[in-house]
Amino acid sequence: MKNEEIAPHIEDITRALKGKASKEEVEQELEKWLEKYGLSLTEVKRSVVKKLGGDPQDLFARTEKKVNEITGTEKNLELKARIVSINEKKIEVEGEPKTIHYGIFGDDTGTIPFTLWEPLTEPLEKGDTVHVINAYATTWNDKPQVNIGSRGRMKMLEGDEVPEFKRTPQRCDMRDVREGMSNLIITGRILDLEKKIVQTENGEKELYSGIMADETGKVQFSAWHDFGLKEDMVIEVNGGYVRSWRGIPQLSFDENATVDKLEDDTLPPKDELEESGIMTISQLARRGGAVDAIVDAVMIDIKSGSGLIFRCPECNRVVQKSACRIHGKVDGEPDLRVKGILDDGTGALTVIITREQTEKILGYGLDEAMQLARDRMDHGVIKDELEDHLIAQPLRLKGNVTCDDYGLMLIAREVKEKKINMEEEARRLLDEVRV
Length: 435
Ligand SMILES: [Zn+2]
Prior knowledge:
Elements: H1 3-17, H2 23-36, H3 41-51, E1 77-93, E2 96-107, E3 110-116, E4 129-140, E5 143-148, E6 153-157, E7 170-171, E8 184-200, E9 203-214, E10 217-223, E11 234-245, E12 248-253, E13 258-261, H4 270-274, H5 281-287, E14 290-302, E15 307-311, E16 323-324, E17 328-329, E18 333-343, E19 348-353, H6 355-362, H7 366-376, H8 380-390, E20 394-404, E21 407-417, H9 422-434
Parallel strand pairs: 3-5, 7-8, 10-12, 19-21
Antiparallel strand pairs: 1-2, 1-4, 2-3, 4-5, 4-6, 8-9, 8-11, 9-10, 11-12, 11-13, 14-18, 14-20, 15-18, 16-17, 18-19, 20-21
Helix pairs in contact: 1-2, 1-3, 2-3
This protein binds zinc ion.
Residues 312, 314-315, 317, 324, 326-327 line the site of zinc ion.
C-alpha cells in the first residue's frame, strides 16, 4: 500500500483509539499487520484497534454531519442528504476526458454544493436521498462544499429518511444571485427567450431559457416547464434555485415553482434594463460570474498574445513562433485581440477583447494592421498602439463574465471609453458601501 492510501486508515484507527495511541504507533502496528497476515483491511483495522487497547466498534463511530455543520475542513465526512440538483460535466484530467457530476445537497438544515469526482455507480437524480461516506469538504469563495473522491461513496437511500429543507423563500435581486441558492423569489423582465428540446434521462423535455433583468442586473434562466413565458413579460418566480453553468450562475425553476405574470410597469422597460447591472469586480467575484454584465474599470496591463496574433487553423489556439502547442509548425491565420487586466479598485479580472472591438479601438481593420506590421517589420507594433489607447484608460465594458479556477474572465462584447459621470459614480460607491 502506498503512503497516501494508508494515511486515511491510520487516521480512522487513531480516531477510534481516542488518544490511547499516537499516529506513529498506529502506523507501525498497522504496517506489521498488513505485512504478516492475509487479512482483509477491515479485519486488520479491527485487530490494530483491539491490540492497542481500543474498541473496534469505535472504528465505525459516526462522523456524520448535518449540512449546516460542515465547515470546509472535514476529511472524513459522512452525511445523508437529498439531491437538490445534479448535473454532468466533462473535464480533462491529464489529457484524458472524464465525466464528473456536480450539484447541490440539502437536508433540513440547509444546502451545500457538491462535486462527485468519480463516475456514478448508480443513476441518481434530483430528489433522490443519498448516504455519502468518506467525502471531504473544501471551501470555494469562502463557502464550504462537499467533494466525493476516489475513497468516497454515494449510495442511494430508500424512502424519506432525510427531511426536506424548508427554507423560508427569500427575495433576491439579480445582482445577488449566487450558486447554491434555493427557494428564491425573484422578479424580472424577460429580455430574451428561446425554446429548446433537450434530451434527459427521462426522455425529451422542453426547456425555456433566456435572460431576465431587474434594475440591479441580469441573470440567465432555465425554465423546465411551460409557464407560458413570453419575451418582455415581467414575472415573479417563486421557488427558483441557482447553479453554475459554464462558469456563470444560472437561475433554474421547474414545475415545483410558481410563476406569476406581473404588471408591466413593475420594472423599467426592456431597453433600459438592457443597460442595467453595472457590477463591481468584487461583486462579480462574490457572485461567481454574470451574463451580459457591465463593468467600469481601468485597463492596467496588456498581456503578450495581444494585438496582431496568429491562430492555428486546426484548433484556433494562438500560435507562438509559427508553432501550435498541439499541431506543431502551422501556417497561422491572422487575428486581432486584446488580453488584458482590468482593475476597478475592488478587484481585478482578465479581459478578452475580440477582433471587432479591437478594430474599433485601433480605428482600422486587420488588413491595415498586417500592412503596418510589415512596414515596420514588427508584429509588436499593434500591441504597442493598443497599449497607448487603453492603458490607464477608464472603460465601460459589456459582456459575459465567467468564473473558474483561474479566476474571473470578461469576454467583452462592447468596449467604450468612459466619460465619468460624477453623480452616477457617487451613487455606485454608496451602493457598494451599503452592501
Ligand atoms: Zn493547433
